[in-house]
Amino acid sequence: MTTSSTPRPAALIVRQASPPNLESPFSSLDGRITPGESVYVRSHFPAPELNAESWRLRLGGQVDTPLELSLSDLRAMPAHTVAATMECAGNGRVYLSPRMPGVQWDLGAVGTAEWMGVLLRDVLGQAGVQAGALEVVLEGADCGTLTDPGRTPGNIHYARSLPLAKAQDDVLLAYAMNGQPLTRDHGFPLRAVVPGWFGMAAVKWLTTLHVTDTPYQGFFQTVDYSFWQSRDGLSPQMVPLTTMLVKAQIARPAPHDCVPAASVFEVVGTAWTGQGDVTRVEVSSDSGQTWAEAELVDPPQTGVWRRWRFEWQTPQQPGTVTLMARATDSAGRTQESGHDVGRGGYMINFPLPITVHLRGQEA
Amino acid sequence: MTTSSTPRPAALIVRQASPPNLESPFSSLDGRITPGESVYVRSHFPAPELNAESWRLRLGGQVDTPLELSLSDLRAMPAHTVAATMECAGNGRVYLSPRMPGVQWDLGAVGTAEWMGVLLRDVLGQAGVQAGALEVVLEGADCGTLTDPGRTPGNIHYARSLPLAKAQDDVLLAYAMNGQPLTRDHGFPLRAVVPGWFGMAAVKWLTTLHVTDTPYQGFFQTVDYSFWQSRDGLSPQMVPLTTMLVKAQIARPAPHDCVPAASVFEVVGTAWTGQGDVTRVEVSSDSGQTWAEAELVDPPQTGVWRRWRFEWQTPQQPGTVTLMARATDSAGRTQESGHDVGRGGYMINFPLPITVHLRGQEA
Fold this sequence. Notes:
Chains A, B: Keywords: Metal-binding, Molybdenum, Oxidoreductase. Chains A, B: Residues 243-335 form the Moybdenum cofactor oxidoreductase dimerisation domain. The structure is a homodimer. The first copy, chain A, is mostly beta strands. Chain A is 6% helix and 37% strand. Chain A is globular. Chain A binds chain B through residues 60-61, 100-102, 137, 139, 143, 149-157, 159, 208, 210, 212, 215-219, 221-223, 226, 228, 232-239, 341-342, 344-345, and chain B through 60-61, 100-102, 137, 139, 143, 149-157, 159, 208, 210, 212, 215-219, 221-223, 226, 228, 232-239, 341-342, 344-345.
């Protein structure tokens, strides 16, 4: 007998009430696309309420023609639809020990949506990027004061930069998600979608694009959303986070679920990577000592997670086990067993231990 | 009758015992060059004890010929002597309100010494800098672990970078200070001296020079020793500290000194700037409401402070006054009256209020 649990109600889990940091109920996984009302929300400052009529996107800096575009201007440009898996760089932070500062995300700071908008490269092409340009800074309307002692610059806006090559590749300026206009929490009227990158690059409530020949050094670029990386034989440097890592997650059983002993249970989940495609998922039911191959349900699609399933023969006796999943991608990268301390509270892609309780067979 | 106070004993003031952060007794100002035993000491990690025989300076990265130089090799190269005023970027921090984190320096995290060594440009020339190089990273032997929560990368070394243009200009790799080999606290056997820049650039216990085409992003470059600067109409960014600002300081009277009322007291001090020369010093004895011209004692010498004096007609009655000094440089820059919050605990160059008590005339 094979049992499986059905998706759960899809309400968002509140990790922080204000500003809203809301986690997707990952155990409600069903289709490949996450329903709009279940897409996680990450906010750094209170969500701005922008007026669709008066709002403008300004593009300046090292361009031939600075632009000021209304929402109507953008909607009149060629529209593109891109499905993209987006993961917060701190997804899974609750599994870190010792505890790291920041929102204590479990499994649900990740999701996949279909975004519609214009390509950033089309907007840049309209303005004409000048020779020598290096990056595009994306700044949002969301702003506030940092409370880090001694580091208060007054009011700052959320902003990140992208290398010009990425900006001229596949970055979308989205005005719709899953066929609906963006909600306020998701960045109305316009946000970036940066395929393959962690969510911090997907600046919401976009108001300013600035093309620059100087590396951008905003707080969310160099201090927050950076990690320690060794290079050139020097001591580690703080390097901005960019692409997502290869990672598999178990949606069901959910952590601390009870499943029947001595039966076959269908374990399901998703797996994604920031570059290329996921090619393999494995599951362990003995805390990572042995691994068995899972079946990939979805065909490969760059930038979009693949669902997978695994028929788990549960132990004969009641008790507790630790399930894990790990993925490998087309670049041959796989998940390492531990967390590199240099990553701090970010890029958590060791196989997360999911505790599952086995109950005796029902009569 | 003109009175003046004599220089005080020159013992260093302990601001932090371990690692040693020792302040120069600024009120002991006498000659233009600070005696070696009075030069301030700034340490981030315990002072390494390096062996002069086995120590090597390694130069690598974007060069034609990587080098490994002994102290003898360096001493065999053309020697240069450079007098330079060096100020810690946090000098004067004790005057900030609210209090800022970091060593609570009063007036003495500044001094002027005569350094002897080789020009960094000569070493770079020997190695051959390749086209496309952007910066030179200077790394010291001093190392330790940062305790910033969630940001622990394990052991890191102190390091800073210099733009190639500065590195190929007047930067000295010094093995002697005021005619004596460097002491351990001052970076034995080799340290950088970066004329015009705040002291954080003058990396001590030098072991590694790395020529790179990538902006360096070490902790002491992008997080510590950086400040908030607005540019391009974007929200402030964290920009590495570089050149010293124009600044005058009063050496005598020292803070909270008693001086005779109804007399002429010779106020003395120094003034410096990171670019060009100091051209003017003014003194106020009414908390900055009115200013009177001071006399510059030393001739201009780029990179070296100028001593100044001012004959102060003290008030007729006993009481308390606030003395201030402010400087202007050859670029027309002068000291502003307040501290820009974006500077955090750095670049403190508002005219510091020196409280002085007036005592009645002695019989």
